[in-house]
Design goal:
two-stranded antiparallel ribbon, 137 residues, mainly alpha, 4 helices, single chain
């Protein structure tokens, strides 16, 4: 009689090792937490309280929630793709190329460059995710 117990060790549902993905997510979460703390404390340079479509506090909270979920689900292919992509989009609002033209850039450049390196790392990780068929995501 055949063993019908699934072999979970052979299920390739995501990256072989999500450590790099999680490290990039952690970088974005830490930088956004520092931004939120600077906003609350009013310590310059801090983000504006409000930008055109939303308040920055709730946006940073949502970005941190996305990063937390991406961290927790990094070993699953489909959630890693969706949440990793959402984390990239959210981080680009705060750390995208538009920041090179921000008057505060001389004060925030370390965070911008590190965040952009984390974003690039995430993009490489997401493109490199195995495309397995018939495997639960």
């Amino acid at each position: 009689m055949r063993n019908r117990t699934p072999d979970y060790a052979n299920w390739s549902t995501a990256m072989q090792d999500p450590t790099t993905f999680r490290a990039a997510i952690a970088i974005l979460a830490i930088l956004q937490t520092v931004m939120l703390g600077a906003l609350f404390a009013g310590v310059p340079p801090h983000p504006p309280v409000q930008v055109a479509p939303f308040g920055i506090g709730p946006f940073l909270g949502a970005s941190l929630a996305i990063c937390a979920a991406a961290w927790m689900l990094a070993s699953r292919r489909r959630p890693a793709l969706l949440l990793g992509g959402a984390a990239i989009v959210a981080a680009l609002v705060s750390f995208g190329p538009q920041k090179y033209f921000d008057p505060q850039f001389p004060l925030i450049w370390p965070a911008v460059l590190i965040a952009q390196a984390a974003i690039a790392t995430l993009l490489v990780q997401l493109v490199a995710l195995p495309r397995t068929r018939g495997v639960p995501a």
